[in-house]
Amino acid sequence: MTKIAEFANTPVYVLKSGAQPICPTILSDDSGLNCICVYGFSEKLIYDQFVKSASQALTPYPLVKGYLANRIAEAEVAETDGVYPTLVILDATDPSQPCLSAATMASVLRSQEEKAKQVPIEYELVFDSETTSYQFKSDLTTVTA
Question: What is the spatial distance between Cα 54 and Cα 57, in angstroms, rounded to a whole number?
Answer without folding.
Answer: 8
